[in-house]
């Protein structure tokens, strides 16, 4: 009881003091800066040698047009594709994808909350968590992961990937909007399409989160405010990986393919370690991504155009050579160490 009282008093005092100090400092700084800038702009530029009229913005007016003898302008100019902002160009892909028939269901085989089937035959029918054995197996695996896989390095990934998973892709592939704008546009398209599709299926299945079944699981992130199935992190990042592979020339696919597929899988898996997703959520997200890439994205004109541009961005000189890197070889534990490791359910074995 004493600890709670001290905690409450200290928390209140510290919170009040910090809040007051931060609020005062931020308010003063912002007020001073805004006042100074506004006052300077309004009063500073007075008429005089080299000066401008009061209230004129820095980019106002024309650059000495009256001094040019002959004004020559280009004919038939168009906005260069390379000057598009990648996230806005991705909206063109999202718009074309939205006009496809990705939501056309087979009504005879579709049952809300339990089974979804596309007219093409693609089906989602997750194992029911109302069956005790299914739920217990899923929860047991999450509890095991919370005990053995929540280490420092993984926790840092989980926290950053909650809202910034794209940073791992730009780091892996050395991407910037300047050096590979078409590739960046495709990456962002994968996130945008995955977000929209994932929310559609979440609304269809309205599955509860792990914490709704087992509050003592103690997630390392706040439980998201939308249903669990499917995992959007698994769906989006699997889709981004598939789009990245479309961009790469064959000479680079051999070098990047394993890293791309591993990163996509790991980001989805981290959500399970965090305790916010079941394995069936992640598995479904990956299945949806592969279906979307196979049946729809590869056929979109906007995607085909971006892929063609992206491949030009990735042109490199050289040739592929298989090299043995002994320092990169995995270190295998002894048989005795393996015998003492916690058992992993067969359903999670990755081949």
Backbone shape? globular
Order of helical and strand elements: HHEEHHHHHHHHHH
> What is the distance, rounded to the nearest whole angstrom, between the alpha carbons of the first and last residues?
53 Å
Summing up helix and strand content along with how strands pair, one would put the structural category as mainly alpha
Q: What is the spatial order of strands in the main beta sheet?
A: 1-2
Compute the number of strand runs: 2
**Mean pLDDT score:** 81
Radius of gyration from the alpha-carbon trace, in angstroms: 27 Å
Q: How helix-rich are the residues, as a percent range?
A: 55-70%
In percent terms, what proportion of residues is strand?
under 5%
The helix tally amounts to 12
Textual characterization of the structure:
This protein is mainly α and 351 residues long. It is 56% helix and 1% strand. The chain contains 12 helices and 2 strands. It has a two-stranded antiparallel ribbon. β1 and β2 form a beta hairpin. The radius of gyration is 27 Å and the shape is globular.
Keywords:
mainly alpha, two-stranded antiparallel sheet, 12 helices, 56% helix, 1% strand, disordered C terminus
Secondary structure topology:
Blueprint: H1 2-43, H2 86-98, E1 116-117, E2 123-124, H3 132-148, H4 152-164, H5 166-173, H6 181-205, H7 210-213, H8 232-247, H9 250-273, H10 279-295, H11 301-313, H12 335-339
Antiparallel strand pairs: 1-2
Helix pairs in contact: 2-6, 4-9, 6-8, 6-11, 8-9, 8-10
